[in-house]
Amino acid sequence: MLCKYLQPKTTLRKKIPRHIAIIMDGNGRWAQKKGKIRTLGHKAGFKAVKEAIKFAIQNKIEVLTLYTFSSENWKRPKLEVVSLIKLFLFALKNELKYLNKYNICLKVIGDLTFFSEELQSCIYQAEKITLNNSGLILNIAANYGGKWDIVQGVKKIITAVHNGDLNINQIEEKTFSQYLSTSSLLPVDLVIRTGGEKRLSNFLLWQIAYSELYFTDVLWPDFNRFVFQDAMSYFSTRNRRFGGLIKD
């Protein structure tokens, strides 16, 4: 299910990222520091999600991608995994009015076949209901992995070549990007990771080759508009050369 396709603008906004991706890390540690079970940290993190969405809308960010559940998260304790999935299901069922109120178009990327039929149905319905919303695109990465995305892209290309829809000589970087789960979205300008870790954790590996990276020690439940603004301010200082020379 695709939201409106974003074409590059003729006049680019300087120093303002159009697509921001966030690795929301630190829910469990936040809960443990407060003497609570880890699952309560995920519930607290849901409030931070709404804060981030609100800030993105206010600052006219066009795409916000949130890494909610990685393909490696299945390795966590069963109770925590179940809690994460229940929270995702709850949000899909109860936040549709919020999404429509603020003209948000929902998109979910990842290998959804691992989820229950109920959850897959809720995802499909939420995408369908918000499809024509023309505001912020909220892109949720669920059971997502960057390596998985690249592999499934390769499989699609092989199928297209086998069916005669694509010539092998047509395959280049731009072509390959069209077979990834983010094909309808703008390039990622800024990646934010909370929680103090400084790694990408298998997130959008192809898509963030030239993204700016911002790391903060703030744990995700404590993420707010001030932290988000700090990341935006950092981005505004960057000279994005994309491998070229600094322009005068």
UniProtKB/TrEMBL annotation:
PROSITE patterns: UPP_SYNTHASE. CDD domains: Cis_IPPS (cd00475). Catalyzes the sequential condensation of isopentenyl diphosphate (IPP) with (2E,6E)-farnesyl diphosphate (E,E-FPP) to yield (2Z,6Z,10Z,14Z,18Z,22Z,26Z,30Z,34E,38E)-undecaprenyl diphosphate (di-trans,octa-cis-UPP). UPP is the precursor of glycosyl carrier lipid in the biosynthesis of bacterial cell wall polysaccharide components such as peptidoglycan and lipopolysaccharide. Pfam families: Prenyltransf. This is Ditrans,polycis-undecaprenyl-diphosphate synthase ((2E,6E)-farnesyl-diphosphate specific). The active site is at D25, N73. Substrate binds at residues 26-30, 38, 42, 70-72, 74, 76, 193, 199-201. The keyword Hydrolase does not apply. Homodimer. One of its GO terms (molecular function) is magnesium ion binding. GO terms for biological process: cell wall organization; peptidoglycan biosynthetic process; polyprenol biosynthetic process; regulation of cell shape. It catalyses: 8 isopentenyl diphosphate + (2E,6E)-farnesyl diphosphate = di-trans,octa-cis-undecaprenyl diphosphate + 8 diphosphate. Gene3D superfamilies: Decaprenyl diphosphate synthase-like (3.40.1180.10). Keywords: Cell shape, Cell wall biogenesis/degradation, Magnesium, Metal-binding, Peptidoglycan synthesis, Transferase. HAMAP family: ISPT. Belongs to the UPP synthase family. The keyword Transferase applies. InterPro entries: UPP_synth-like, UPP_synth-like_CS, UPP_synth-like_sf. It is an enzyme of class 2 (transferase). Its cofactor is Mg(2+). Its EC number is 2.5.1.31. GO terms for cellular component: cytosol. Mg(2+) binds at D25, E212. Binds 2 magnesium ions per subunit.
